[in-house]
Amino acid sequence: MIRLDEVTVRVATPGGDLVLLHPTTLSLTEQRVALIGSNGSGKSTLARLLNGLVEPSDGRVTVNDLDTTRDGAAVRRQVGFVFTDPGAQLVMPTCLEDIALSLRRSIKDKKERLAKAREILAEFDLADKADTSVHALSGGQKQLLALAGVLSTNPAILVADEPTTLLDLRNTRVIADRLFALSQQLILVTHDLDLALRCDRALVIDEARVAFDGAPADAVAFYRQQVTR
Amino acid sequence: MSQFLVGNYRPGTTLLHRIPAGPKLGLLALFSLATVLVPGMWPALGFLAAAIGLAAWVRMPLRSTVRALRPLLLVIVLATAFQVWQRGWPTAIHVVAGLLAVVIAALVFTASTSIDSMLDAITRGLGPFRRIGVNPERVALAFSLMIRAIPGVLEIAHETRAAAKARGLERNPRALLTPMVIRTVAHAYETGAALQARGIAD
Fold first, then answer.
1. What is this model's ipTM?
2. Mean pLDDT for chain B?
3. Is A98 part of a structural domain of the chain?
4. Nearest CB partner across the interface for B120, out of A73, A110, A133
5. End-to-end CA distance of chain B
6. Pairing assessment for the beta strands A201-206 and A185-189 based on DSSP bridges
7. In this complex, do B190 and A85 lie within 8 Å of one another by their Cβ atoms?
């Protein structure tokens, strides 16, 4: 279970402290939780708190009783993270090697590791791209590969920060179908309100605060009203 | 050259593909030393012919190999002119043929060795240094990231130049350098965050 207790995030700027998240207390237990809101509202800050990429200035974030500040490495083994731009996430030259990199910690034997990496690529319909440069993939394929790389470590929770923002309609559907078929808990940051509606709970983030927390249909209605006000 | 270094590993079954990365790197070092230590124009041409033969053996495509060597052209012209002026044609041919042979042999190494194999070799090679606090996995990761960063930075440079050109600022160094530096640092930050998120940097 993910818990935030009185969590605040601040950064120092020449003009004084800038608050990225005002004191927030939350428990996220639902299978699929959407975070929606305007650009710069604090959605990504909240998402990045969940696997320790951002540490709270005050308060405490725990994932299955592990503190993200104190037990960062252990938390990241439980919480996978998919970024908006897969380009930053793919760090090896070829698809096979990138998946193999994720498996290095769990599978020491090289042959076994490469065989498992091929198996994972096949699961994601990328079997024929094993030896292809990651630069040569389409946007949708890159995001699929990034997702495959993260899921290959078997995280208990997946946080996806606007994973479909850079994709066309067809690829958005492919990625969304993958995400919603997962057995893992999914925390989805998105501007796609159709995706938010498919979740079990939705939070609207506005000006670094949780402005609404409830059923997705109500949250989307609240958000629509808010942006047209 | 960077595209070749990182993106042109060509899977294959030749003996060169099958030699583990560590011994292969040792052979490359010996080959490089030989091109410097064995004197004379004809041995240098022999080394160059051998390197070209190896490139053909691992089926390196001619066009991308030539493209990879193009940045070396200026160095070759300058080195040739300098050596001809100082020591004459035979020495100039020795130096330039040797240089080309080493670069082509290095390309053969990258074309026949996957990054995963290189990581294994580095991790194994640095194993004994664990006792003095070296983390071989981390060094191997830094190595692969360095190689991976080259095309990324070149891509940023290309995009920045195109953006400056679109605004009619292609001759303005500030319009080229400032966004390039900022975007390169941002890219490094994002890559770091992504590695951390994947638990690879822990």
1. 0.72
2. 85
3. no
4. A110
5. 32
6. unpaired
7. yes
* Residue A47 to residue B96: CA distance in whole angstroms: 55
- d(CA B145, CA B147) in angstroms, rounded, equals 5
pLDDT digits (tens, 9 = 90+) for B89-118: 999 999 999 999 999 999 899 889 887 788
Position A132 in a domain:
no
Residue A14 lies in a domain: yes
Tell me, yes or no, if A212 comes closer than 8 A to chain B by beta carbon.
no
A104, A106, A109, A113: CA torsion to nearest 10: -70
Please say whether the beta carbons of B1 and B96 come within 8 A: no
pLDDT tens string A175-211: 999 999 999 999 999 999 999 999 999 999 999 999 9
Assess contact for A213 and A201: CB atoms under 8 A.
yes
Q: Is the pTM of this model over 0.90?
A: no
The backbone torsions φ and ψ at residue A61, rounded to the nearest 5 degrees and listed phi first, read: -115, 130
> Could you tell me the CATH number of the domain that includes residue A214?
3.40.50.300
Element (H, E) at A26: strand A16-28
Residue type, B162: A
Task: Determine whether the interchain pair A93/B196 forms a contact, defined as Cβ–Cβ distance below 8 Å.
Answer: no
**A219 falls within a domain:** yes
Please tell me the total count of domains within chain A.
1
